[in-house]
Q: What sequence folds into this?
């Protein structure tokens, strides 16, 4: 029997619930109100053609360079009315360029002699065609909660307003390489750069008003006098490490510096020149005088090699350091993750600058408020967390700011580790036996203290000095222990290729759990590291850490589903989708499925087959079919939201029907976003559990911001939840509380995390899924830099299929 057709009514989104007004506090946002007094915003499509171009195809005659297109459009002088052209495809105006807004195409011709960047004589034709007219009253209706205004209409409107606002000149900001930066409260560093701020405005419809959301991105601006000094500071930490080993910088190290100087403008002998790269030979070997003979030379556009010390940065001309080195990145992140009060002042300063009267914005009737908005927020209580005390009984653990202590307590669900081995990649001289045994003993001790049943306290050890056959190496390690459940791998350094090949072999060919630890952490292990490794191992082998009380909110027989899509680089650029589904009634244990997708495809293909299998596993684990499905979906933007909802919701209902005709449990589909610029402050970071459901959320779609975690540094970023479908009957407040409670269920940490634990599982599974390829991981084109046979995903080994191997 065919499943019933997908109900078109399901394409509608749940309405934003009424504001209860029962707020616990007020939080400062990085939003300000926006007014648009113009009646309409007109959008036009622009085509610029070289009429004298060789060839007879339209494509060959198109002018594509944005700067040239902008200058041609300016010279066309089609109208005296204010028009903004984005240099690519679209022009925007507040008044119609035609007598009627959708009138005939406007055409004019321009001679190349009036265009500075065109050195050839030609005639250019500019065509402007009416594309769309946006009505401001429709936007006002949408912000007032009228869901009859199409989402696509509002998205196009916001795209147009964003383009107009970003085009406006802001004299108060400094133009650095085409980027508008502010040195207000800049952070000075001794590493060759200072941290400045780049502002970005995005228009967002909110409840009752249009808002401008301001984000401030940290940017490294060079603060030294010449490239020689920049070179020394760039390699300061690296050089110190090498000096302790009686080594010096090599050409492969220089390669990391080349992108830093490429494109910089410097003064050489009084002339301004542009740097194109770095020499592969030291100045001394090139017989270039002056400067440090052990340093490379900078290469200029005219192929000259200039010692770095002679490349002076122009006085008064700031330049952005394009690349921050791997050994600088931690320092850069640390200084740019400023205190919340510092960030708030940076954002408020940026909004004051961008809100100042602008003739460009006035032409479109756009006025941005200078004051950041404050909104009401709820603060949810943490759920009840239970751990074992002694052998059997459980006790509640006190939580503070989303954290709790596990010291002196045991995990609620202990696994049994009967047989395991230790595989060291390297020589015994680099990892002596006594040092390794100390680590193993401490690991066993911590595991036993956590209540994990470790039967083998002295596992066999294998050293692997040749890594050309990882399958044989891991296989030999497994053979050392009968019934081996886990291989603890000690890696000499951080290598994606080595790690990926170990995981590929273990997950797809041998079927054994692996836990990788870097040698540096073995030598200097801490109780925190040992606890983290022990908790990961416990989850992989079937245990879980704490009991999170979500029963009253989750309801009986609720299956939690989460999905994510990852677009890989290593595995031939394929897209990998991961779906995890709960297999017990408490949302503790999950099974995962990896699916290979066509490149860049966002929706989950073959979801119905995955859900059918998940329903069987849930029935096997609980003894009944789910009475409700709670589906969290990660990583979907506005333009894809409707397609993902219709395709994936239909797949879930189809799977249920195929399991049993007429079986259609309620489904709650929640979209989760992390990549946004919304920030909330309340005398610092708000406490975990802070929920914002008014003002700056969507006016028509049930949505809310939830800050579930405590950020150890910088400003906390909340997750944004949009409820795309819900026929469960659960009230809005309970869904928000349940989402917060599920963020405490991530078993490898003793704190709440940013999102529900199942979403973290899906994200981890996409990362592990990209390792499940059909050929040796270290032979993929990403590592060999040569094209090769296209790899494809293979299923996980049957021995691991029902386990949480992705942790």
A:
């Amino acid at each position: 029997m065919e499943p019933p057709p997908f109900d078109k009514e399901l394409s509608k989104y749940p309405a934003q619930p009424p504001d209860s007004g029962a707020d616990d506090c007020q939080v400062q946002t990085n939003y300000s109100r926006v007014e648009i007094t113009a009646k309409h915003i007109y959008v036009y499509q622009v085509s610029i053609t070289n009429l004298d171009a060789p060839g007879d195809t339209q494509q060959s005659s198109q002018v594509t360079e944005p700067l040239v297109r902008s200058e041609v459009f300016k010279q066309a002088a089609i109208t005296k009315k204010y028009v903004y052209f984005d240099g690519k495809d679209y022009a925007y105006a507040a008044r119609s360029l035609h007598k009627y807004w959708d009138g005939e195409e406007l055409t004019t011709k321009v001679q190349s002699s009036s265009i500075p960047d065109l050195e050839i004589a030609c005639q250019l034709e500019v065509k402007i065609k009416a594309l769309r007219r946006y009505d401001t009253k429709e936007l006002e209706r949408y912000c007032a909660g009228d869901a009859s205004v199409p989402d696509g209409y509002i998205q196009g409107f916001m795209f147009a307003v964003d383009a107009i606002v970003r085009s406006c000149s802001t004299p108060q900001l400094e133009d650095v390489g085409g980027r508008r930066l502010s040195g207000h409260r800049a952070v000075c560093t001794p590493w060759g750069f200072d941290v400045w701020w780049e502002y970005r405005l995005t228009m967002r419809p909110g409840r009752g008003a249009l808002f401008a959301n301001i984000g401030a991105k940290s940017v490294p601006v060079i603060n030294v006098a010449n490239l020689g000094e920049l070179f020394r500071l760039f390699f300061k930490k690296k050089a110190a490490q090498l000096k302790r080993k009686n080594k010096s910088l090599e050409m492969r190290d220089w390669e990391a510096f080349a992108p830093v100087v490429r494109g910089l403008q410097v003064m050489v002998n009084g002339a301004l020149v542009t740097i194109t790269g770095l020499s592969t030979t030291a100045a001394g070997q090139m017989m270039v005088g002056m400067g440090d003979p052990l340093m490379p030379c900078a290469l200029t556009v005219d192929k000259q090699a200039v010692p770095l010390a002679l490349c002076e940065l122009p006085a008064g001309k700031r330049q952005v350091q394009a690349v921050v080195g791997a050994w600088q990145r931690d320092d850069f992140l640390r200084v740019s993750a400023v205190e919340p009060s510092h960030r708030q002042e940076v954002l408020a300063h940026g909004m004051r600058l961008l809100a100042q009267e602008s003739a460009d914005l006035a032409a479109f009737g756009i006025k941005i408020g200078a004051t950041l908005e404050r909104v009401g927020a709820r603060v949810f209580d943490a759920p009840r967390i239970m751990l074992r005390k002694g052998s059997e009984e459980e006790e509640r653990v006190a939580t503070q700011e989303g954290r709790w202590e596990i010291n002196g307590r045991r995990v609620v669900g202990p696994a049994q580790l009967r047989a395991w081995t230790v595989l060291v990649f390297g020589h015994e001289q680099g990892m002596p036996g006594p040092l390794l045994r100390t680590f193993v003993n401490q690991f066993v001790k911590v595991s036993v203290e956590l209540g994990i049943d470790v039967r083998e306290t002295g596992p066999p050890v294998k050293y692997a000095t040749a890594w050309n056959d990882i399958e044989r190496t891991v296989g030999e390690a497994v053979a050392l222990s009968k019934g081996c459940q886990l291989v603890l791998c000690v890696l000499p350094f951080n290598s994606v290729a080595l790690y990926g090949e170990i995981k590929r072999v273990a997950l797809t060919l041998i079927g054994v759990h692996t836990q990788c630890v870097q040698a540096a952490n073995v030598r200097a292990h801490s109780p925190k590291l040992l606890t983290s490794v022990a908790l990961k191992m416990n989850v992989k082998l079937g245990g879980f850490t704490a009991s999170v009380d979500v029963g009253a909110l989750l309801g009986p027989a609720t299956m939690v589903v989460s999905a994510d899509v990852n677009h890989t680089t290593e595995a031939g650029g394929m897209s990998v989708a991961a779906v995890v589904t709960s297999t017990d009634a408490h949302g503790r244990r999950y099974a995962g499925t990896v699916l290979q997708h066509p490149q860049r495809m966002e929706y989950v293909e073959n979801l119905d087959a995955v859900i059918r299998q998940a329903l069987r596993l849930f029935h096997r684990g609980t003894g009944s079919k789910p009475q409700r499905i709670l589906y969290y979906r990660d990583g979907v933007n506005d333009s894809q939201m409707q397609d993902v909802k219709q395709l994936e919701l239909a797949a879930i209902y189809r799977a249920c029907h195929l399991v049993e005709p007429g079986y259609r449990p309620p489904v709650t589909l929640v979209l989760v976003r992390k990549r946004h610029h919304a920030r909330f402050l309340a005398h610092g970071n708000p406490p975990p559990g802070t929920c914002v459901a008014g003002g700056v959320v969507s006016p028509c779609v049930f949505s809310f911001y939830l800050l579930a975690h405590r950020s150890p540094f910088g400003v906390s970023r909340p997750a944004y939840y949009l409820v795309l479908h819900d026929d469960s009957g659960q009230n809005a407040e309970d869904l928000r509380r349940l989402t917060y409670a599920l963020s405490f269920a991530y078993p490898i940490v003793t704190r709440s995390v940013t999102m529900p634990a199942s979403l973290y599982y899906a994200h981890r599974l996409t990362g592990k899924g990209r390792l499940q390829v059909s050929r040796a991981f270290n032979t993929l084109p990403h590592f060999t830099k040569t094209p090769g046979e296209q790899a494809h995903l293979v299923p996980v080994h049957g021995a691991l299929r029902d386990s949480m191997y992705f942790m």
